[in-house]
Amino acid sequence: MFDVAIIGAGLAGLTCAQQLHQAGYSVVVVEKSRGVGGRVATRRLHDTRADHGVRYLESQGKLVQQLIEILLQRNILQTWTTTTYELDSAKPEFGVGSELHPSSVTCYVAPAGMTAVAKVLATGLDIWLNRRVQAMVPTEKQAWRLTLEPTDEQPSELMAKAVVVAIPAPQALMILEPLAGMGLPSVFLDSLRSVEFDPCLSAIALYPTQRQKDLDELNPAWKSITFSQDPYLGWIGLDSSKRLDTSTPIFVLQSTADFASRYLDATDLHPAGRQMLSRAAQLLIPWLDTPKWLQVHRWRYAFPRRSLPMDYLATTTPLPVICCGDWCGGNRIESALQSGLAAATQINHQLQQRSLPGESFWDAV
Questions:
Q1: Is 2-38+118-195+310-364 CATH 3.90.930.12?
Q2: Three-state SS sequence of 172-194
């Protein structure tokens, strides 16, 4: 029996968990993946790594700024670049050598991978990885019973007085819709159904070491390019420039939502990745379509397209349950952090009304 079970170890779920944990509640975080962070994701490849989710952090709000400052002090983050570029491929003169339009933006990255940010937030928490929640039901003991995907050694159930569902709204619906006949208000479920997400494909491409010399001769020597009005690409970054220990060029490309929508049910994503690389070669560097190695990841719920106009979604019927995430109040990292804080405040109000650390919780992680 826990005081609070939190489904999802993304930034919102971890922030909420830290608040409640530091206030003395017994908290468990249940995560279906093998690591924390959600879309703050890093993939290990060969002897290095690549960030195939969140590209970098930038100061887009008070909470993110506080997080950046603390992680800079701990040498977890460093400045990646102070200039990002934009390429409008809809213009008639687009093509290799097209003009890149610079913007002054300070971008912060973790050389160890962006999941390092989430690992800091996970400090001291009880996190059950590789555990998918299959169902949750209210019990006569005034607690939720969560049924987990069975494993050989781990428990298949847990009990909690309150549940925080900190995953994308469509995934939350899969767990919560069966509760419609058990007292969960229809207006609560309707609010979840109103949230919409855009998908994205991330292609990770590794190139021979000798290509690094070609990159050093680029003018301008860009690290991050956003594409406007392109049918295939939304962004490309020279991911290997974030690392301190690699001389192998690695690019990460992210698609547009429309392009990713064509591959929502595809079992083989390599053809999509090849199209993305071919487009990047057409627009930027001709040899980008001949990688030594390629992986493609599908983010089905990459960016909230239609969010809820509040920091969290809550009900006490039949028992306390709260939904939170970056789809509450906006679609930025700031929204995820704020949503996690607000969800913790609401859960605390419904339980024992203890003293929460608030924004100062960074100091204890």
A1: no
A2: HHHHHHHHHHHCCCHHHHHHHHC
CA 266 to chain centre: 22
- pLDDT tens digits along 11-48: 999 999 999 999 999 999 999 999 999 999 999 987 88
- Angle (CA) 293-298-302 rounded to 5° is 130
pTM for the predicted model, two decimal places = 0.95
Residue 68's DSSP bridge partners are none
CATH class of 43-112+197-305: alpha beta
Q: How far is CA 234 from the centre of its chain?
A: 17
Helix extents (H) in 228-332: 257-261, 270-283
What residue spans define the domains of the chain?
2-38+118-195+310-364, 43-112+197-305
Task: For tokens 């070491």, name the residue.
Answer: 209
Distance CA 170, CA 238 (A): 32
Nearest 5°: the CA angle 203, 208, 209 is: 120
